[in-house]
């Protein structure tokens, strides 16, 4: 026997009105051609609940109990890279069969979403210690000090390319938890390599590196771009040069030249691109360049030069003036990677 059709709201209200006027259940049933049992059910429902609208139903029994859901959430938090399929297999092995959508719904209910794992440098204990020391040593430096720093770095800009994605389960604000990031190491290849520098007053030189950069190439770049960029940006005589700990940067020949040129170098913790604001500049540059869709490497280099020169000094100063926040983030993260 098929399921009977539910009465309309208008018909239910007529039954209640007739009942209030004093008519019996049998009379209402005959007048409206509705089974007496149905009339009685509607009248009783109205007397108890004060409405004839459909009440919330219990629905199907949940596949996972509250305790099982909490266990599932703990499992995902301890291993964010586990997939929904693997979770279903583990539950099935334990005697509970659920669908992928059920797992997804439970995780969403507890604020966990599938997100791409952030690619961040691999940090060892010595790196964490060095980052914390750097933050502690420079926490008391004010904006005046950081405005005198000439920030530098190299970057690789690709004409085409694809980066594999890794998804993790995490809550909002947990993107940079070590479990939710994807460690990366520097690797060769790519389309064009650029060396650039900037300070709070604006962008400095942007130099293309042909082929694989060696220490002699790096020294040549510094000799022809470093002091000229500092003068053009008005850094004065007490400016500080920032570079990372790449072997080319710390080579003997480069150190000797920096000493002879009387250029102060900022002591830098390894594996710390998040402490260098020029990384934010590279992000801006790459976005602007790829919007223009260069068709070859010559155009790519040309667009890079044009877009680098368009970056406003106000944007540079905003990055530098907020530098202390980076140090605070490093301290709060106990040396691990930060959102920068």
From TrEMBL:
Domain Tc1-like transposase DDE residue range list: 149-300
GO biological process: DNA integration; DNA transposition
SUPFAM superfamilies: Homeodomain-like
Sleeping Beauty transposase HTH domain residues: 1-52
Annotated Pfam families: DDE_3, HTH_SB, HTH_Tnp_Tc3_2
Molecular-function GO terms, alphabetical: DNA binding
Domain Transposase Tc1-like: 70-140
Protein name per UniProt: Transposase
Encoding gene per record: Nfu_g_1_001731
């Amino acid at each position: 026997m098929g399921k009977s059709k539910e009465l309309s709201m208008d018909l239910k209200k007529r039954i209640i009105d007739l009942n209030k006027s004093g008519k019996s259940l049998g009379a209402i049933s005959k007048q409206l051609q509705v089974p007496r049992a149905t009339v009685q059910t509607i009248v009783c429902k109205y007397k108890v609940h004060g409405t004839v609208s459909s009440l919330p139903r219990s629905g199907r029994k949940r596949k996972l109990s509250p305790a099982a859901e909490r266990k599932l959430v703990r499992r995902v938090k301890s291993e964010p890279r586990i997939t929904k399929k693997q979770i279903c297999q583990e539950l099935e092995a334990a005697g509970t069969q659920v669908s992928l959508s059920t797992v997804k719904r439970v995780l969403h209910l507890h604020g966990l979403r599938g997100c791409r794992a952030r690619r961040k440098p691999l940090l060892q204990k010595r790196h964490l210690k060095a980052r914390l020391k750097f933050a502690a040593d420079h926490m008391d430096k004010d904006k005046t000090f950081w405005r005198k720093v000439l920030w530098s770095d190299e970057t690789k800009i690709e004409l085409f390319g694809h980066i594999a994605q890794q998804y993790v389960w995490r809550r909002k604000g947990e993107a940079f938890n070590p479990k939710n990031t994807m460690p990366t190491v520097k690797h060769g290849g790519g389309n064009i390599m650029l060396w650039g520098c900037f300070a709070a007053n604006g962008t400095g030189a942007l130099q293309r590196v042909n082929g694989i950069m060696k220490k002699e190439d790096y020294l040549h770049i510094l000799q022809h771009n470093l002091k000229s960029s500092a003068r053009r940006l008005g850094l004065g005589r007490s400016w500080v040069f920032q570079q990372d700990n790449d072997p080319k940067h710390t080579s003997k020949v480069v150190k000797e030249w920096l000493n002879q040129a009387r250029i102060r170098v900022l002591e830098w913790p390894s594996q710390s691109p998040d402490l260098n604001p020029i990384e934010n500049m590279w992000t801006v540059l790459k976005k602007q360049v790829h919007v223009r869709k260069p068709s070859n490497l010559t155009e790519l280099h040309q667009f890079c030069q044009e877009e680098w020169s368009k970056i406003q000094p106000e944007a540079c100063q905003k990055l530098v003036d907020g530098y202390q926040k980076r140090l605070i983030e490093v301290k709060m993260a106990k040396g691990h990677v930060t959102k920068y």
